[in-house]
Amino acid sequence: MLATPLVGRAAPSAQDSGLALSINVGFDGYYKEGLWMPVHVLLENNGPDVSGQVRIANPRGFGNIETLITRSVELPTQSRRSLQLFVAPEGFSSTLNVELVDGNGRRLAIASSRLSRLSTDDLLYGLIANTSSAYLALNDVDPVNGQAVLASLAVEDVPTTGIAWQALDVLVVSDVDTGGLTPEQRRALTEWVQMGGRLIVAGGPSWQKTAAGLSNLLPLLPDGARSVADVQALADFANSAEALTGDAVIATGPLTADAVILAESDGVPLVVSRRVGFGEVIYLAADPSFAPLRGWGGVADLFRRLLSTMIDRPSWASGITNWSQAASAINRIPDLALPNPLLICSFLGFYLVVVGPLNYVVLRFFKRSELAWLTIPAIVCAFSIAAYLTGLMLLGGQAVLHQLSIVQVWHGASRARVDQVIGVFSPARTTYDLEFSPGFLARPAPGSGVPGPASVRVEQGETTRLFGVRSDIGSVQAFAVQGFTSAPQFDAGLAIEITGGVAELHGTVANQSALTLQDAVLLAPGGVLRLGEFKPGETRQIRLSLSSSRASPAPPNAVLPLSSGNSALTSPSPVPYYSPYSSYDTTIDDILGTSNYYQDMAQLRRYELLTGAINLHGGAGGIGRGNGIYLAGWTNSAPAPTRLLNVGFREVGATLYLIALPAAIRFADGEIILLPGMLTWSPRPLSGNDPHLGQPPYDLMLYPGEYYAVRFTPRQTPGSLKELRLNLYGSSYSNSTPAPQVELWDFALSKWVEQPLNGYGTFSIADPERFRGPYGEIEVRLYNPGPDVVEIDQLDFALKFAP
Question: Does residue 141 surpass a pLDDT of 50?
Answer without folding.
Answer: yes
